[in-house]
């Protein structure tokens, strides 16, 4: 088929030299696919090397402490990926003696592995003819074939999977899947693609109809929740501070943070200062309270926007279980706290 031939020839001429393309080891490919979920290749590649260096086999990863895994993941975001990665490694190491499921159906049973990731691993490792369907694939197929189906609709994934399967060479699924993802990442990009140099510009229906900017169609909006965090950086007379593990389910589960006051609406500095004395005044001899970040730091996650301020809270005497600021480098923190510590205390956390 013209589309498939053009796509594969383009890929062979333009593909990036990526380390996970040089192996069919399911452990390495699984690791790369989990890291690259919601992550650009340039950002994810150092993490891929770091994880393979620290955990050369699935047994090494399984035997690691979760805190060690989270520390290595620090700065990559979407930390549930790291926790699922660790749990899945333990399941594979103990449940199947380190052997990954050999097909798409089995891979789908792994924690943290969805349809896209299972298809990628199955095709790259075992050349199983299962098409990958992600944002890149939606975009390439919808433009080339002029598919106006709303990609946020319930039946879209099934429709695009069937279309991809129809143009996939069943004897070379790995090559096809790599090619279509790479084409979407490098050539058929979301905004302002350079169609003048595209190898498909003579047969792309969206280009002929001047609809490239209109496809793929996506009408469903993600509902964003606003949250307000005021972090309290306690400092005693020995220049010690305190942190705790965030054990509540949700964002940053099992990462460390300073004591925090969470609000559902923005509060004035006077209100937060009063709450600091109310909540912590009986526990600590507070000598001073000052907001460090008058203008909140806005940290945007996929479904949440966090408005964050840091407060310096002076304490008389010595904090129980206090830490030197230099000790903080041992703990995994959310990136917004890492940035604060590195800037304010001239420490390198990563």
From TrEMBL:
Cofactor: [4Fe-4S] cluster
One MF term in the entry's GO annotations: 4 iron, 4 sulfur cluster binding
UniProt keyword Nucleotidyltransferase present: no
Keywords, comma-separated and alphabetical: 4Fe-4S, DNA damage, DNA repair, Glycosidase, Hydrolase, Iron, Iron-sulfur, Metal-binding
Gene3D superfamilies, alphabetized: Helix-hairpin-Helix base-excision DNA repair enzymes (C-terminal), Hypothetical protein, domain 2, Nucleoside Triphosphate Pyrophosphohydrolase
Function recorded in the entry: Adenine glycosylase active on G-A mispairs. MutY also corrects error-prone DNA synthesis past GO lesions which are due to the oxidatively damaged form of guanine: 7,8-dihydro-8-oxoguanine (8-oxo-dGTP).
Name recorded for this polypeptide: Adenine DNA glycosylase
The organism of origin for this protein: Flavobacterium kingsejongi
